[in-house]
Structure formats: structure tokens, C-alpha cells
Amino acid sequence: MVENEEQPKKRTRREFLQQLGIVGIGSALGGSAILAALNYDKSKTDGQRVRVLTAQNELHEINKDDLHKVLPSKHGKLTYLQQQGRDGLEGKRFVMVIDLSKCQNARKCMAACQNAHHLRPEQHHINVLKMEETENTPPYYMPKPCQHCDNPPCVAVCPVDATFKRQDGIVLIDNERCIGCRFCIAACPYSARIFNWAEPLNAQVEKDVEYNVELNVPQKKGTISKCLFSADQVRLGKLPYCVSACPNGVYYFGDENEDTVTNGTTKETVRFKKLLEDNGGYTLMPELGTKPRVYYLPPKGKTVPFNEQDREEASEHLHHS
Amino acid sequence: MAFLTLSLFVCLGAYVYQLNKGLVVTGLGDYVSWGMYISNFVFFVATSLIGMLISAVLGLSGQKWATPLARMAEIIALAFAAVAGLVIVSDMGRPDRLLNVFIHGRIQSPIVWDITVVTVYVLISTLFLYIPLIPDLKICHDKIEKLHPIARKAYKLLSLNYTGSHEQDLIIKKLTRAIAIFIIPVAFAIHTVTSWLFANTSRVGWDSTIFGPYFITGAFVSGTSAIVIAMYFFRTNYKLQEYITLEHFDKIGKLLVLVSLVYLYFNLNEYMVPGYKMKKFDARHINALFTGAHAFLFWSVQLGGLIIPITLLIFNKMRKPLPLLIIACCVFVGGWFKRYIIVVPTMEHPYLPIQNVPLNFKVYSPTLVEILITIAPMILVLLIVSTLAKIIPIVPIQETIEELEESHD
Ligand code: SF4
Ligand code: SF4
Predict the structure, then answer these.
(1) How many angstroms separate the CA atoms of A172 and A184, rounded?
(2) Residues of B with CB below 8 A from A288's CB?
(3) Alpha-carbon distance B266 to B263, whole Å?
(4) Is the pLDDT of residue B398 over 90?
(5) Is there a domain that residue A263 lies in?
């Protein structure tokens, strides 16, 4: 932010506070910088020290005077959670690798995801599809989350910046801003987006819960939802909900910058590029230029047979309606 | 009028219901997430282009016969364009956040372009209606005998001290001409941008480079049929046989043939090219249209809304008022369903299979509430047009007199 560059002294302190998760308004407007500057002078007096837990799960000690309550979203301003959700994690480039040869359609990923994001049974952030490419190629199961495209059409078309791309590669939604035009649904070639057509599942209970962009909870009627790469989990250094729920070792998740991905089942960490190289990794519909951050390993050497009942459903998409 | 108002209230009731419950009251789902409302929006924007075609294009190219139709075309254009804005709101999941578009608007979103150009078009259309109207307002003020004093005052106020001086006439002429020129690119812009809402996605059936002209020519077809309907009703109800003559019907009938032929040509391109290649994903879409689930609607629209009307209208007899009215109605209704055919089937054919969702997510069928909310804007347009027709001369008096004088000289 510009005002920070002009005041290098205050910058570190403000950043520090933001990390702690206790600065109230991460406002895009200059006002917050002034506020921070004022508080800076005030905090020079040694007051009582208190301990706070950061969003990264670390314990810090700070002056009690520096504690600020997180303010709810005001018109045009973002809450701390919203700002943090937009900023993303510095220095990271998250990727997912899905090994199709291991998927047995256990659907534990779908259940864990729906549970975490408070979705209805027909709402899928991740959907295990039954696929068949041609008559002569074998069918396979394909879990399909949002591809977190590096060139995301959904973000391009959104009229209000309610869906956005973060520096760590994750594409998120701010359902406090979404106007429900559903242009992003039309634009997403992977059918990754869902809409809250009715009151969400837990609308009543979650009335007063503060909105967390990184979890997209509480869900809101008339707004979009989709896979978030479990941004709330990865902030804590954990694996996404689906990844850790899979019993069959289908998912790897990690950081492209570090060139490592971790298998959610075996917790084994491997080289990302090497994994793709050794197994013929690919992305879905690369010809569209969306540049997905979700990679697939082909269903080669599958040991578990495809369920016969699913075959018909898989071939439906193949044959012309 | 009373009936219309009553129906409007019923439809508004449906909208309140939708506001309350959410869009779940429609037949939309996560896959077909745009349906009747968006089709309706496209149709409204399309029809509103007629003001530009009749008043600007014909006017500027010296087609004097069209002068008495200009006012009607402008009223239709204004009504449809203004109401189109409401139609799009009816589709929004969070209409309460409409202002976000202005607060957080992002220039790279075609929706923002659309809102901008539609607003500009509504403003210019208002001017386009109003400026040439000034002399007529003066005539209303002077010549109508039984008039409520307030109405007389209003006419006077709105005629802006027009006295009929040569100078004032010149200003009005120049202004009208300037607006006529300016409105052409804006009208092209509104419908081209509307087509880009679709063409700027990678979906089968929408991912087309000819969508702009395809939509524009389609707009002329719907608009021309709308003006035929308006001509017929105003002519009979307002006893305007002298001014809206058989010749007008004949000529507008020919215009309808011309624009329909051009549109047919674009249709041929739009369906024949992917239909020949039958690429994997296109094939599912094309098959659904040609022989599958949407075939009946598709062919009804192509035949009943385009091919048969063109064929019939070639005959002189068919360009008489009554037959022309009937044909125009078919074209108009066909035009609406054509938008539906453009919007809905594509959404039913995404690249990846639709699985693990209820059946109503796979196949779109509109609900009653949705139909009512779709009808509401049409009623509103009827109300606007008939109200405007009551308070302003539906045929431009001044200009028509001038035309008549010129042709007698
Ligand atoms: S998969 Fe769809 S929703 Fe996800 S980033 Fe790409 S375009 Fe957007
Ligand atoms: S539905 Fe919401 S997130 Fe999607 S494009 Fe519209 S405003 Fe953006």
C-alpha cells in the first residue's frame, strides 16, 4: 500500500499487528494508516502485556493497548478476515495433484468438504465424477475441485471483484460482496461453482457468526460458493479437508515454490515436479488457457475395477443426447 | 389498462416471493444457472434497438416514408431499454447489493460494460424521443381544447418556450440529427456487449466470434416485428389510417423480410459450421438442438419465426395490415424463444458431466413463479407504451406535416 511506503517506520509495526490478527480494519483507505500512526505513539507507554494467539497458531506477547476488537464489515470496508482472505499467504503457490489411478469413489473427500463448508447434500465443492473419454477407453473416477486457475475466467467476468485470485494461487469468493449474477458460473469451464439458491443449511444457527472468507462460512443465500483449497487450513499449515479425508492416497497437496507435495493419506512428502514427470501428470482442458493449479495423474494401473452400475452414467456424457 | 395493472401486481407478488425465498423458487440450478430471466433480458435489449433502426438509420438515409413511425419506434425503444434494466435485477441473487456494481465495479467484466452502455442508451433514447417532440408539445398545448389546466401547464413547461421560430426549428433539427448519428454506435454497443456476456465464455454454443452481428441482426428482426404490432394497434385504436397507411405496412413488411434474411444468414453460419464439424462437445449441443431435447423448440423458432414468415412476406397480399400483424406476432414470439434457445441449451451442456445432483439440475424447466416474473416486464412495457401514447402524439405531427408539404410541392 502506498501510504505504508511513505511511512516505513510504521510499516513493520502495522504488518506485525496484522499478522497477529488483532488489527481491526484492514482498510484499503488511507484512514487506517493514520489510525495506526496514532496508535503507534500511544503504545510507547509501557502498559500491561498480554498474550495472544495468532491465526498461524503462534503465541505472541504484546502491549495491552495494542489490542483492538475485530470490527464487523462496514460499507465499503473489509473486516480483518476479509482482508486476510484477500491477501493470501506470501511466498506460497499452492498446488494439488490428484492421482486417478488410486480413486475408488470412496467419496470421503466430498463428505469432509460438505461438512467443513456447511453444504447441502447436492452442493459440491468437490465432486467425484464418473468419466469415460471414448468407447474403447476404460472409465475412471475423477474427483473435481475448483482448478484454482492461474488465468481464471470466473475472476475476469465478476463485476464486483467478489471472486479474486490471491498471491498464493488460491481463487476465493467474498460472499459479503457477491451480487449473485452467476456470470462466474457461466464462465467457469469446469462447472466448479455452486450457488446458494435457498437459505443455506445452517442459516439460522450461524446468523451471528462472523464471515470467514477462507472457509466461506456462514454461507449466504443468493451468493456463490466453491472449493477454496481449504484456505483456512493451509493458513494453519494443515492439508485441505478433502486431502486428509481420503483413505486411498488420491490427493497430494503442497507448494509449487518449494516443489513439494504431501500425500493426504500416507503423509509422505514428495517432489512435485518429479511426481508429475514420473507419472505423466496433466491438467484438465489445457487448451482453454485457464492454467489450472490442480494436476491429474492418469488412471494407469488401476487395481480396483470400475463399478458396473456407474458405467452407464459415465457413458451418458459421451453419447449424444 | 386496469387489467394490465392488476396483472402487474400479481407478477410483482411473485417477485416478492422470490426475494423472500431466494432463487430456489425458479427452475434454475448450479448448471443451468441462467434461464428465462436472462433470455428475457436479451430479448428486451434486442427489441429496444428498433428506435435506432427506424429513426436513425432510415431517417438518416433519407427514407422519408418512415417519418410517421419514428415516434412509435422511439417509444418502444425507450420502454424496452428502460425495463431491460429491471429484468436483469430480477435475475440477481442479491438485488440488495446492486450498488456494489458502482462501488466495486471492475472494468474487465462485460456486465459492467453492459450496464454502462444500457444506461447511456436509455438516456440518449429519452433525448431522441424528447427533442423532436418539443414542437408537438407546443401544438398539444395550443390546439387541444379540452385539457386539464395542469396538463396544459406541463405541455407548456416541457415545450421549453418553443415558439416555432426558424432558429428554434434549426436547433431542433440539428440536435435530432446529431443524436440520430450518435445513437447508432451506442445501440450497436448495447447489443454487441450483451452478446459478449455469452461469447466471452468458453461454452459450446456461445464460444462464437459472430455473436455480435448475430445478435444485432436478430435484434432488428424482433424490433421490426414489434413496430408492426404497435402500428396495427395504434392505427385501429387511434384512427390513424390517414397517416399510417397501407404503404407503410407494405414497406415495413419488406423491411422485415430484409432483416430476417440477414438474420437467417447468420443463423446458417452459427449452426451449420459447428454442425458440419461435430467436434466432441459441440456435437452434444448441436444434436440436442437438431434432433434432441430442444429440437421441437429449435425448429419451431427457425421455421415459424423466420423461414415461413420470410416466405409469406414475399407476397404482396401478406404485407396488408392484418396478415402482416399475424406474421409479426409469430416473429415476435419466435424471437423470444430464440433467445431462450441461445441461453438455456448451452448451459445444459457443460464440458464435464453433470453428476451427483438432483435431476432438476440437469434439465431446466421454468416454474410458475419464474414465468410470472418474466411476464411482469412485458406488462410494464405495455403500460409505458400505452401511457406515453396517451400523453404525447404517437405520430410526429410537425415532421409529418413537413413531409406532406414537401411531397405536395
Ligand atoms: S475452475 Fe472455475 S471456478 Fe475455479 S478458478 Fe477455474 S474458472 Fe474459476
Ligand atoms: S455471482 Fe458473485 S462471484 Fe460470481 S460473478 Fe457474480 S458477483 Fe462475482
Answers:
(1) 12
(2) 202
(3) 5
(4) no
(5) yes
Task: Give a yes or no: residue A35 inside a domain.
Answer: no
Total count of domains within chain A: 1
Asked whether the predicted pLDDT for residue A51 surpasses 60, the reply is yes
* Per-residue model confidence as pLDDT tens digits over B201-230: 999 999 999 999 999 999 999 999 999 999
Interface check A128 vs B, CB under 8 A: yes
Residue A127 Cβ inside 6 Å of ligand 1? The answer reads: no
pLDDT, mean of residues B248-270: 96
Put simply, whether A179 touches B (Cβ < 8 Å) is yes
Work out which ligand 1 atom sits closest to the CA atom of A165: 5
How many Cβ atoms are within 10 Å of A232's Cβ, its own excluded? 22
Distance B374 CA to ligand 2 centre (A): 22
To test the contact with chain B by mutation, choose from A86, A160, A283 the residue with the greatest count of B C-beta atoms within 10 A, namely A160
Instruction: Answer with the residue of higher pLDDT: A312 or A149.
Output: A149
Q: What is the pLDDT of residue A203?
A: 85
CB < 8 Å to B284, chain A? 320-321
Asked if residue A181 has its Cβ within 6 Å of ligand 2, the reply is yes
- For A234-285, the pLDDT digits (tens) are 999 999 999 999 999 999 999 999 999 999 999 999 999 999 999 999 999 9
Angle in degrees, CA A57, A63, A67, rounded to 5: 65
Give the domain range for residue A215. 94-319
Query: Which residues neighbour B81 within 8 Å (Cβ) at sequence distance 6 or greater?
Result: B44, B45, B48, B118, B121, B122, B125, B190
- Could you tell me the pLDDT band of residue A30, with boundaries at 50, 70 and 90? very low
Q: Does residue A178 line the site of ligand 1, with CB under 6 A? A: no
CA distance B130 to B125: 8
**Torsion sign, CA atoms A27, A33, A38, A39:** positive
Residue identifier of the C-alpha nearest atom 7 of ligand 1: A188
Is A34 among the domain residues? Answer: no
- The dotted CATH code for B2-397 is 1.20.1630.10
A60 found inside a domain: no
Across the interface, of A181, A191, A195, the residue whose CB is closest to B352 is A191
- Return d(Cα B138, Cα B180) in angstroms, integer: 22
Q: Report CA(B370)–ligand 2 centroid distance (Å).
A: 21
Q: Rounded to an integer, what distance in angstroms lies between the CA atom of residue B170 and that of residue B402?
A: 14
Calculate mean pLDDT across residues A75-95. 87
| CATH number of the domain residue A183 falls in | 3.30.70.20
What does the CA dihedral A224, A230, A235, A239 come to, rounded to 10 degrees? -170
Which three cell numbers mark B215? 445478435
What is the C-alpha separation between B335 and B329, in angstroms, rounded?
10
Maximum separation of any 2 CA atoms in chain A, in Å:
76
* pLDDT at residue number B271: 96
Which bound ligand lies closest to the C-alpha atom of A153?
A: 1
A138 and A299 in contact (C-beta within 8 Å)? yes
Q: Atom of ligand 1 at shortest distance to CA of A191? A: 2
Residue positions counted in chain A: 321
B263, exposed or middle or buried, with CB in 10 Å at 0-12, 13-18, 19+?
A: buried
Q: Is residue B108 a contact partner of residue A151, using CB atoms and an 8 Å limit? A: no
The residue-averaged pLDDT of A302-317 equals: 86
Strand pairing category for A251-255 and A260-263: antiparallel
Best CA proximity match to A57, nearest among A238, A212, A260? A238
Whether the pLDDT of residue B324 is over 90: the answer is: yes
**Cα–Cα distances in angstroms (integers) from residue A47 to residues A10, A21, A22, A207, B296, in the given order:** 19, 20, 17, 36, 78
pLDDT recorded at residue A304 = 80
CB of A76 less than 8 A from some CB of B = yes
Give residue A2's pLDDT band: very low, low, confident or very high (50, 70, 90): very low
Are the beta carbons of A321 and B293 separated by less than 8 Å? Answer: yes
- Is residue A217's pLDDT more than 50? yes
